[in-house]
């Protein structure tokens, strides 16, 4: 668990993070979102002391990070940045092995961990272990960057705009893969993004920041349905709000008894996907794989926030 208490950072007369307090529970993803200059990256970097706070406290599992030597702290915390940050003169395997090597793991254990992570990220070790970063696609480089951040099995992973350099198709897949991987490993994750869509897609909690201050912190549905300030409301985007609400639930949450003609939609598909299918195909009812239906009327009700996505 991460507890941030009254954290402030000033540079001379400029306050870039202003008295921020929030808690990230173990195993959750917290998304820090805001415009450029909002203080979100500085807040992230104060967690692993890449930036030292002017005042306030960061506790990880109850331990004040100020009591831990910075280099020791950073070896315990995974860190991934935009553009992957791979060492260009080192192979994929050597990049992933960076922190375990610093921690003096046995060579056999390091090699096994590198191969384990490559397989986890669907990169064949025999094919990719000895490649150089410039020989990889952008998506592959990003996966190796995240693998490196996870190499020493950190319980906490910090990510600063990790998908910002990826094209939309690869970015969506990378987000999906990260969410699945985080659920599998149970890693606590704090991610910085300027993209509310990404924050909604990934975050169990969303922290909205502006001019160094924390304006609102809560689950995505709360941010979308009850924005605390006009700035939060503007960041959400009134036109996008219904679709973002639908992206939070799956067809399985809304399926009801019945039958309908046409191709069936998977129960794990988002309600946003179901609405798109209804509108694209002109159907009022969609059959669901395994039985049941989802209706356009109910989807519209959920898009307004008037009806919870439950059966």
UniProtKB/TrEMBL annotation:
GO molecular function: ATP binding; ATP hydrolysis activity
PROSITE patterns named in the record: ABC_TRANSPORTER_1 (PS00211), ABC_TRANSPORTER_2 (PS50893)
Biological process terms in GO annotation: quaternary ammonium group transport
Coiled coil (residue ranges): none
Domain ABC transporter: 2-236
UniProt keyword annotations, A-Z: ATP-binding, Nucleotide-binding, Transport
InterPro entries with a match to the protein in the record: AAA+_ATPase, ABC_transporter-like_ATP-bd, ABC_transporter-like_CS, P-loop_NTPase
Keyword Protease: no
Pfam families linked: ABC_tran
Family the UniProt entry places it in: Belongs to the ABC transporter superfamily.
Name recorded for this polypeptide: ABC transporter ATP-binding protein
């Amino acid at each position: 668990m991460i507890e941030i208490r009254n954290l402030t950072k000033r540079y001379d007369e400029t306050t870039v993070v202003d008295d921020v307090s929030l808690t990230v529970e173990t195993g959750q993803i917290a998304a820090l979102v805001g415009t450029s200059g909002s203080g979100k990256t500085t807040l992230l970097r104060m967690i692993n002391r890449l930036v030292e706070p002017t005042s306030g406290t960061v506790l990880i599992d109850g331990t004040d990070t100020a009591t831990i030597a910075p280099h020791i702290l950073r070896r315990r915390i995974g860190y991934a940045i935009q553009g992957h940050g791979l060492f260009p003169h080192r192979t994929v395997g050597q990049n992933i092995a960076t922190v375990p090597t610093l921690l003096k793991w046995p060579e056999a254990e390091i090699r096994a961990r590198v191969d384990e992570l490559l397989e986890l990220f669907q990169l064949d070790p025999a094919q990719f272990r000895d490649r150089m970063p410039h020989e990889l696609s952008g998506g592959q480089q990003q996966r190796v960057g995240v693998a490196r951040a996870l190499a020493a099995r950190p319980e906490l992973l910090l990510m600063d705009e990790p998908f910002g350099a990826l094209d939309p198709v690869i970015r969506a897949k990378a987000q999906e893969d990260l969410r699945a991987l985080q659920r599998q490993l149970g890693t606590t994750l704090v991610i910085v993004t300027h993209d509310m869509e990404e924050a909604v897609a990934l975050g169990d909690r969303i922290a909205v920041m502006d001019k160094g201050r924390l304006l609102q912190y809560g689950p995505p549905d709360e941010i979308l349905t009850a924005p605390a300030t006009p700035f939060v409301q503007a960041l959400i985007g009134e036109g996008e709000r219904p679709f973002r609400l639908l992206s939070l639930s799956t067809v399985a949450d809304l399926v009801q008894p019945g039958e309908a003609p046409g191709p069936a939609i998977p129960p794990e598909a988002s309600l946003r996907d179901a609405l798109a299918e209804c509108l694209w195909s002109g159907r009022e009812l969609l059959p669901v794989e395994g039985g049941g239906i989802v209706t356009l009327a109910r989807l519209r009700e959920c898009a307004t926030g008037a009806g919870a996505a439950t059966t």
